[in-house]
Design goal:
Pfam families: Bac_luciferase. This is FMN-dependent luciferase-like monooxygenase. InterPro entries: Bact_Lucif_Oxidored, Luciferase-like_dom, Luciferase-like_sf. It comes from Streptomyces lannensis. The protein has an 8-stranded parallel barrel, surrounded by 8 helices. Strand 6 (188-191), helix 7 (202-216) and strand 7 form a beta-alpha-beta unit. The chain has one domain: Luciferase-like domain (TIM Barrel). It has helices at 23-40, 62-72, 90-104, 118-123, 131-146, 176-185, 202-216, 237-257, 267-273, 281-288, 311-328; strands at 9-14, 44-47, 77-84, 108-113, 169-173, 188-191, 225-233, 277-279, 299-303. Residues 337-342 have low confidence and may be disordered. By secondary structure, it is of the alpha/beta class. Helix content is 42%, strand content 15%. It has 11 helices and 9 strands.
């Protein structure tokens, strides 16, 4: 008897944010989410790198965090969405990746991007206007190092020896042109939870990017598309909004100050611009069935950001995603670690 493969892998993404100044508790809670997700059968757990603090925290150094998560979990894959590649020495980064991959038994996924915060670039002595060139150059070196090739000088290869990463490198992009560049480089595609700078619905904007990526793909292996979405199921919409509403509105107003969102948004429009899936699981499933990018993705990556729900509510939301939302969309929970290409 043949078992049908799941339509997509299911992931969750944490920006490692909390409330207040107790960052030890914030980091502890984020680690607990990995443990819970591992037990629930999520396929991949992702973290985002932020050098400039977010409200209530933010993760500056993802690879030590993922090494700790590897020790506390058994099968969930461990990824970055994203590591800010222009601010990293790519050879040094490759060493960190190889160490965590070795410790975790080959469970690492590597998501990279250029970032955008001028303060971060200034702190690391880089020019934010140079981010595209730096991303491209560093990605070439990172790939060489992870392919166990000599890098920068004859006779030097990273150690421990890296495994096969050809299907495990992802690029975050924000345009159709960026998607084509990712395909040309042989990277998997990461799409953000929202399309900033556009008035049209996020999935209307991003579906052509996904199609551009697939059209440009010229490699023998299967192309992968990871779709990040703000998902918060709860007892009902009112219960969900009690956990996420204030944070969403504050985040929208912060983005309005930088010109990313229009000023004066109300909560309903803020939720729309963040392309939010919230409420009873049936409401979330119904909304996802209208999502225009989901039919072409291989990985659905759920996140709560920009909201910072209470820890118990976050765990309950993960449970509802894994037991009610994702199965209704064709996903099946993992019972053991799957190879990266499945």
């Amino acid at each position: 008897m043949t078992t049908q493969a799941p339509r997509f892998r299911l992931g969750f993404l944490t920006h490692v944010q909390g409330r207040g100044d107790d960052l030890r508790q914030t980091y502890h809670n984020a680690q607990e989410l990995f443990v819970v997700a591992d037990q629930l059968g999520f396929d991949v757990g992702w973290v985002a790198q932020h050098h400039v603090p977010l409200g209530g925290g933010g993760l500056s150094s993802p690879w030590p965090f993922l090494a700790h998560a590897a020790a506390r979990t058994t099968r969930i894959r461990l990824g970055t969405a994203i590591t800010i590649l222009p601010l990293e020495d790519p050879v040094r980064l490759a060493e960190d990746i190889a160490v965590v991959d070795t410790l975790s038994g080959g469970r690492v996924e590597v998501g990279v991007g250029s970032g955008s915060h001028d303060v971060e670039y200034a702190a690391f002595g880089k020019d934010v206007a140079d981010k595209r060139r730096l991303t491209s150059e560093h990605l070439v070196l990172l790939r060489q190092a992870l392919a166990n090739e000599e890098v920068r000088t004859p006779g030097f290869r990273i150690q421990p020896e890296a495994a096969d990463y050809r299907d495990r490198i992802w690029q975050g992009v924000f345009s159709g042109t960026g998607a084509q560049h990712a395909a040309a480089a042989g990277s998997n595609l990461l799409l953000n939870r929202a399309a900033y700078g556009f008035d049209d619905p996020t999935d209307d904007v991003q579906r052509p990017w996904a199609e551009a990526f697939l059209a440009a793909w010229q490699h023998p292996r299967r192309p992968r598309i990871g779709l990040s979405r703000f998902v918060f199921p709860a007892k009902d919409k009112r219960t969900a909004l009690l956990q996420i509403g204030d944070d969403v509105l504050r985040a929208a107003h912060r983005l309005a100050e930088s010109g990313t969102f229009p000023k004066g948004l109300d909560l309903e429009e803020a939720l729309r611009r963040f392309h939010t899936f919230y409420g009873h699981p049936d409401d979330v499933v119904a909304a996802f069935r209208q999502e225009k990018v989901l039919p072409v993705v291989t990985d659905l990556i759920t996140q709560f950001n920009p909201a910072v729900p209470d820890h118990d509510a976050a765990i309950r939301a993960l449970e509802l995603i894994a037991t009610e939302v994702a199965p209704a969309l064709g996903w099946k929970p993992a019972t053991e670690s799957r190879p990266a290409g499945e």
